[in-house]
Design a protein that fits this description.
The protein has 21 helices and no strands. With 528 residues, it is mainly α.
Length: 528
């Protein structure tokens, strides 16, 4: 905890403020991982349908709901913990942020596998590069190296995180996908033969259940747009800039995925697509045809840098939400400690040990690709539970905190628009949750029994674990003078005073924001 740590450590530095452009890039980087393009390129023209459908029933609802919730709590830390906890109590709120944190922790080896593959293609002998990329021991070394670099950068504070994420997002995600699309256009314009059947069906054949199962993983591609809400207290003018950054980021995300997937499908036949390596192979094929093969190592390094930026955004995100849980007195003091930059150091170290353990489990799987897929599915399942809680909370708060200031509000009056958008998001997440348990036939997983056992046991374990932690909660975990702003349903006089003080500090820091005074007035009164 920042306050208690300050008693024995150097004073905590004032957190750097995040501007709207940096926040837009952080949102894009948090959501967009070019590693997902090969999975959808298999579907050819219909891949755009999947992207658009998932955007309508998932990405757009997530973005709009998160925008309202973050603007509603601009000076209260916690992100998912705050949003769900205000609606359904602290225990369910803990479950929400726990799932967001644990799924991101499990997710790191999957996205970092893509970073390892990118670095493997720095060499000019791509037959050797492909063999190196498939080597599990090489993958483990690179995965851990990139992850711990991201962790040490996170320990430097949000100023460093924002800068590296912004540069990495531009260099490692936005520029590469733009280059991929430009190469595709030049290739077709100069008479290149497209490997994609442009006369195929735009609306896919839903009778093929296996295709639906693999395609539903696109929901995980779009996950994370709400994650920057954890940093709401470090955002400049959050009631205005956060909704703006989320909506612009969502639109850019859809464009990147659709155009990038089409460009990849143009150069690689669907039957030859490999979920781990095909993006680099696609770039290599374009560069060979266009006689610019010298760019291959450059783009490989850029993509690895993009992975670092994406992981950095996540390392600094959900772990901070868990830190807010600790500040509220729900975790042992070990998890409440910070360094001189106010960063949750012990949580990051524990997270790193878990990631390291998962990376070594990789050697037990039939292949890197099977490890990649089963962890991706587990992260999807856990995250979707958190999203179900978030959508349900957004509706509940319209009634339990009906008079609270909402600088960004879905619908000018009434709750119909919120019911529609959050309802669509809830149903879409529920559907994806069910489909995520089915193994994709396109990947050799070895044993269906192992697949189902890992997913079911993993889901049950991670959902139950936070309640076990709370069962052993001790009074000593609470510290005097902690910085956590109490939930609105805490009616004690001390809680009311803490909320009012935090609201007044927020209003003083954002005196040019006409909505800031409304939060002070709300903190003084009640929600009657």
């Amino acid at each position: 905890m920042a306050t208690s740590s300050a008693q024995t450590q150097s004073p905590v530095k004032k957190a750097a403020k995040i501007g709207v452009f940096t926040l837009i890039i952080m949102n894009i980087v948090a959501v967009v991982s070019l590693r997902g393009l090969p999975a959808e390129a298999e579907y050819g023209v219909s891949s755009a349908f999947y992207y658009i459908l998932a955007a309508v029933v998932f990405l757009i609802p997530v973005s709009l709901v998160a925008a309202e919730l973050a603007a509603m709590f601009p000076y209260q830390q916690g992100g998912m913990f705050r949003w769900v906890g205000e609606a359904y109590g602290d225990k369910v709120g803990f479950l929400g942020i726990w799932l967001q944190w644990i799924e991101s922790t499990i997710w790191y080896p999957t996205v970092l596998t893509f970073g390892a593959v990118s670095l493997a293609f720095i060499g000019m002998d791509h037959i050797y590069d492909a063999h190196l990329a498939a080597n599990k021991y090489y993958t483990i070394i690179v995965v851990l190296a990139i992850y711990w670099i991201a962790t040490f950068i996170s320990l430097k504070g949000m100023g460093w995180v924002g800068k590296v994420s912004k540069i990495g997002g531009i260099v490692g995600t936005i520029i590469p996908v733009c280059l991929l699309v430009v190469c595709g256009i030049i290739y077709l314009a100069t008479g290149g033969q497209s490997q994609m059947d442009w006369h195929g069906r735009f609306i896919p054949d839903f009778s093929n259940f296996d295709n639906v199962v693999l395609a539903v993983s696109i929901f995980l591609f779009y996950a994370g747009m709400e994650m920057s809400g954890i940093h709401v207290r470090e955002i400049k003018n959050p009631t205005v800039n956060y909704p703006k950054a989320v909506i612009i980021g969502a639109l850019a995300t859809v464009a990147i995925f659709v155009l990038g997937t089409y460009a990849l499908g143009v150069i690689i036949p669907a039957k030859d697509i490999n979920l781990v390596q095909s993006l680099l192979v696609g770039f290599d094929n374009y560069f060979s045809v266009l006689h610019i093969k010298w760019l291959a190592p450059v783009i490989a390094i850029a993509l690895a840098f993009g992975v670092l930026a994406g992981v950095l955004t996540w390392v600094a995100g959900p772990s901070k939400g868990v830190f807010a849980v600790g500040q509220a007195g729900y975790l042992p003091k070990f998890f409440q400690k910070t360094n001189k930059n106010g960063v949750q150091k012990n949580i990051l170290y524990v997270q790193g040990l878990i990631v390291t353990f998962l990376a070594f489990i990789m050697v037990l799987m039939p292949s890197v690709q099977s490890f990649y897929q089963i962890l991706s599915q587990l992260t999807c399942i856990l995250y979707l539970i958190a999203y179900l809680l978030m959508f349900a909370s957004s509706i509940k708060l319209r009634y339990s905190m009906k008079n609270a200031p909402r600088p960004y509000r879905l619908g000018k009056s009434g709750n119909g628009v919120m019911w529609l958008i959050a309802g669509v998001g809830f149903l879409g997440s529920a559907l994806a949750f069910v489909f995520s348990f089915f193994p994709p036939s396109q990947i050799q997983m070895g044993s269906n029994a192992v697949w189902f056992s890992v997913l079911i046991a993993g889901t049950i374990c991670f959902v139950v674990l936070p309640f076990i932690i709370l069962h052993f909660k001790k009074a000593s975990w609470n510290a005097m003078g902690n910085e956590f702003v109490p939930f609105h349903w805490d009616n004690s006089s001390s809680a009311a005073q803490s909320r009012l003080k935090a609201a007044e500090e927020f209003a003083a820091e954002n005196s040019d924001n006409p909505d800031a005074a409304k939060f002070v007035d709300y903190a003084k009164g009640s929600d009657k």
